[in-house]
Amino acid sequence: MLELLRFMLKEEFRMHTSYTTKRMFLMFPVMVTLFSLAIALTSERIFLDTPLAQVLLVLHLSVFLYGLSVGAFGFLGRQYQERATGYRNYIVTTPATLPMSFRQTFLGMYLRDAIFYILLLLAPMALGVALSVPWTHFRLTSVALLFLATLLTFLLGMSLSFAISTLYVRSVPAFAAAVAAVSGLFAAAGLLDVVPLESLLPGLGLQYAVPPYAASVPAALGYAGLATLLVLALTAAAVLFVEDRYESKTSRSADTLPTVEARLPLFRSSRVLLAKELVDLKRSGTPVKMLFSFVLPLIFLAFTAWFVRNGLAVPVGFNTVFYGGMVGFFGVSLYNWLNNVDGVDYLASLPLTVPQVIKVKLRAFLILTTWISTLFVVAISWLNQDTRLLWLALPVMFVVSVYMVVVTAYLTGLRTNSFFFNFGIMAKFSVMSMLPDICLTILSFTVDRDLVFSVAGIAVVLVALGVTTWILYRGLEARWGRAEFGE
Amino acid sequence: MVKRYAGATEALKGVDLRVEEGEFFGLFGPNGAGKTSLLKILTGQLQPTAGSATVLGIDTARDPMAVKAAVGIVPEVESPPSYLTSYEYLYFVGRVRKVGSLDARILSWLDFFELDGMRSTLCKDLSKGTRQKLMLAAAFLHEPRVLFLDEPFINLDPIFQRRLKDWLLEYRAKGGTVFMCSHLLAIAEKLADRVAVIHDGRIIASGSLSEVRGQYDDLESAFLHLVGKP
After folding, report:
1. Domain coordinates in residue numbering, chain A
2. Which of A57, A247, A440, B32 has minimal CB crowding within 10 Å?
3. Number of domains, chain B
4. What is the tens place of the pLDDT at every residue in B35-55?
5. B155 at A interface, C-beta within 8 A
């Protein structure tokens, strides 16, 4: 197993560096360390406005969500097993031809991703805070505890997602039931307050069991033990859910591509490409995965806001306009899914360019997500009794969605997942996403104080985003015109 | 022509080659000799680091789309899109290439490769041989004047190897040009008018079959001698 893990880690590292350079890739954890150091150095100011408890809650929820997204590779199980050809192949597919089990390689994949992303994100984050110790009030022991607690939360998210996603491959109803159960538990904690949130996120419980909140060693050990137990149980369940022997079944389908194409008269030259994209999505079951990675964060966002406002009784101004902006920012994950449906090597032999295909994916994104985002913003405004701001929130949502996805497409092309680990690209993406995010968040908080100022400010930001979107969209040709198709 | 990849791998170290229209040209070489890189440059999929390539009067680096539109390409790896049916893949290719009378042509190629029974099967569930047939049908669909084939016979059973050979000879007889990379020297020997051997990024022999065979009885012996593995 150790040998397998060693090879898988090498493979993961080489795969990521093959899209960029080793130096640019290794700059990514350096960037995380510097960001973390900067935040730690300014933490005293941050804590004046935002209590530490709230910062820790948001941190743990974010880390948990990140773990959920990393662990979702269980969805790919059958695709890995089916993958027989392609320019690139991965160790995870080797059990098809070697005396190894898929369960073993999937466990290897889980361990590989855990180690890889801990080294890439969590460890640099903790290192950044540790480096601030000489200038801040933090102590090395509390940084170590922070690392341990966030590590447990990350692993919990990862193993939960791993278990649920492998369950999906076995049985869609069982998957739906599991998602409903988890959502129910979080709703019971957040909305009804009948389950303590610390028992669902024991890493957070561990954090609250140590100073400055308490100094209970038994409670801290209890939470750490519970978290470890949950991680082990979920990982074991996930490994058991993996189908070790997979018999390929022949999938047949009616030839619907011409019909779908005929239904898209507005798209002219790209009609058949767009039709293919939609047919691919439907047949690959990707919408379920997209929904999982889009709706779940939105639910968590709504939950966090609700919890901060009602659970912690902190009067924050998360209104409908704020949600409109946030929904737009979450769209990036959906564009990433669009690039993971299937390989595109075969397009190299056709008179098509990478920018053409990117533009088609952007159209598919708009068709697929606009209505979900709209529904979410309308629903959240209704739940928060804040429908009065829908007229402003919906344009914000639409402009930010289009802007974010065009920025992502411009920076990462058809290889979103890999390019996000390139330091240069991540830095550009951070600046291009954070600036409008901060502006819109601040402006959304001023709506009730000075509506005219707020609307004028938001209008200026939206116009700037619209113009940037147009420039980047036009720039796709220059940036990706010479790129090759392929993984 | 020179092709250097990032990381300093030099795949082509100065290739100079001319193929006449209406010719069946065979390119042979050991694994990693530069065959696929050359074919990708000729079909506009890759840019040369130095030098240029012209196909049907089109500079492949300057106007790769025009080259791809004009020629038919069978790539090294058979990888049709996973979630389209056989029929839909050919339909997709035909629509991208703006092929007229598309339905009739698709049905004719499905019939030629005996894929009728699998027309509604998703490509991900097809056997390697069937995928290869589909890639061949996709390359022939628009009746191109030039065909670039990278190992076209691989994965095909002897029945379809024979059928493909006959069709390619007929295609050439009608004026079509074929540029084929292959390791199957015996098949190539029966088809090619002229051949070249590429080794370590350089053309080390080219000419008619008899010129390249030289003193040897067959192409295989000559090839092994030329690449230094007699």
Report:
1. 1-248, 285-487
2. A247
3. 1
4. 989 999 999 988 899 999 999
5. no
- Name the stretches of chain B with pLDDT < 70: 7-8, 230
Among A34-43, A284-293, A365-374, the least confident range: A284-293
Q: Using CB atoms, pick whichever of B46, B96, B120 lies closest to residue A350.
A: B96
Which of helix, strand or coil describes residue A65? helix
Residues of B in contact with A280 (CB under 8 A): 81-84
> For A349, which of B75, B88, B131 is closest by C-beta distance?
B75
Integer Cα distance of A267 and A264 in angstroms: 6
Q: Can you give the pLDDT at residue A248? A: 59
Domain boundaries, position B10? 2-78+146-226
Which residues in chain A are closer than 8 Å to B66, comparing Cβ atoms? 351
**Span B153-187, pLDDT tens digits:** 988 999 999 999 999 999 999 999 999 998 888 88
Which among B75, B79, B125 is the nearest to A250, CB-wise?
B125
Evaluate whether ipTM surpasses 0.95. no
Residue A322 has pLDDT above 60, yes or no: yes
- CA distances B142 to A38, B41, B96, B115, B136, Å, are 60, 21, 10, 18, 11
Tell me the C-alpha distance between A196 and A207, whole Å: 14
Stated length of chain B: 230
Comparing alpha-carbon positions, the chain A residue that sits nearest to B123 is A251
Residue B25 inside a domain? The answer is yes
Res. A320: pLDDT tops 50: yes
* Assigned domain for B187 exists: yes
Q: Is B107 on the interface with A (CB under 8 A)?
A: no
B79 interfacial to chain A (CB closer than 8 Å): yes
Please check whether residue A481 touches B, CB under 8 A.
no
Mutation target to probe the B interface, by most B beta carbons within 10 A, among A261, A286, A346, A353 is: A346
CATH number at residue B23: 3.40.50.300
Q: 0.80 exceeded by the pTM?
A: no
Name every residue whose Cβ is closer than 8 Å to that of residue A401 and which is 6 or more positions away in sequence: A327, A328, A331, A366, A369, A370, A373
Q: Domain for residue B213, yes or no?
A: yes
Residue B159 lies in a domain: yes
pLDDT at A22: 75
